[in-house]
Write a structure and sequence with these properties.
The structure is a single chain. It contains no helices and 21 strands. The protein folds into three domains: 44 residues; 53 residues, no CATH class; 145 residues, Jelly Rolls (Sandwich), CATH 2.60.120.40. A hairpin with an 8-residue loop joins β7 and β8. Strands 9, 10, 12, 15, 18, 20 and 21 form a seven-stranded antiparallel sheet that branches. It is rod-shaped, with a radius of gyration of 42 Å. By secondary structure, the protein is mainly β.
Length: 279
């Protein structure tokens, strides 16, 4: 009802959904309204009908085109001119890109498809994108163990070598990934009148660590003449020039000793290593 003393302004109008006035329906500067759609129209100076107001503003006019939301809804472009809502889902899911021209979705992160990069050691990772080099070898031949002389043990048969870093020709491990390696070695010997027997890890041609010593105060070591001695250590290798070998030493006291290799028993005369942490 009009206010007393005022003349009401009546717009050209329609109550039919989706109705749009024609240019012939409007005079220049005249307004029209669709009271069902909630749209306000006018005719511009080029005689074209334009929309200047919406009950629900579309994305093409800077709005969302949405009239309601649920808590957690996310808006995304589902076409080049409209926006849609992505409903929230249960706790523990992540927003995952569907790729170009594809809507995003919620889901679990695939460790083989959605993760890249290398987690550094400082953040609980290994600092390497692979498990790292590992090898195992054993000796299948008998070696004389010279008196009072360090002798390199010839682990000349490869069991496995994941990165081709072990040489059976010179029984040497030269890894190409820098880091800390767990090194294990076992040698089996026949000893005669031996008072001292030792096993060493050599790094770059020099003693790195004595991993086994049996000493009998100058007297011959008693017991069986078949003697196995073993050891292990953690060794840093720079991934380029550093290498490791295994050496044995015996003080025979007039006798002779050998390193016994057995092709049927690689468990009694072996050398292996594995990367346990990158540099």
């Amino acid at each position: 009802m009009a206010q007393t003393g005022f003349t009401p302004i009546q717009l050209y109008s329609s109550s039919t959904a989706t109705n749009v006035p024609l240019a012939a329906n409007l005079a220049t500067g005249e307004l029209a309204i669709n009271i069902t759609d909630g749209k306000l129209f006018y005719k511009d100076n080029a005689a074209a009908v334009q929309v200047i107001g919406w009950k629900t503003v579309p994305a093409t006019a800077g709005g969302t085109g949405q009239t309601s939301y649920a808590i957690g809804d996310l808006l995304y472009a589902n076409t080049t001119t409209t926006l849609a809502k992505l409903a929230d889902v249960a706790t523990g899911n992540a927003l995952i890109s569907g790729g170009v021209t594809t809507a995003p979705s919620w889901g679990k992160i695939g460790l083989t498809t959605h993760v890249s990069g290398v987690l550094p050691v400082a953040n609980g990772g290994t600092g390497t994108s692979s498990l790292g080099p590992a090898f195992s070898a054993y000796g299948d031949a008998i070696q004389n163990l010279a008196n009072n002389t360090a002798t390199k043990v010839a682990y000349n048969v490869s069991v496995f070598d994941t990165n081709a870093n072990y040489s059976t020709a010179n029984a040497r491990f030269t890894p190409t990934v820098a880091g800390y390696y767990q090194v294990n070695c076992v040698a089996s010997s026949s000893i005669v009148l031996t008072s001292l027997i030792q096993l060493f890890i050599y790094k770059n041609g020099a003693v790195y660590q004595n991993v086994f010593t049996e000493y009998n105060g100058g007297a011959a070591i008693t017991g069986s003449t078949d003697f196995a001695f073993s050891g292990s250590s953690l060794v840093y290798l720079n991934g380029s020039s550093d290498y490791i070998e295994i050496y044995a030493y015996a003080s025979n006291g007039g006798g002779s000793s050998t390193i016994n290799g057995y092709s049927a028993r690689p468990d009694v005369n072996y050398f292996n290593a594995v990367l346990v942490r990158s540099a």
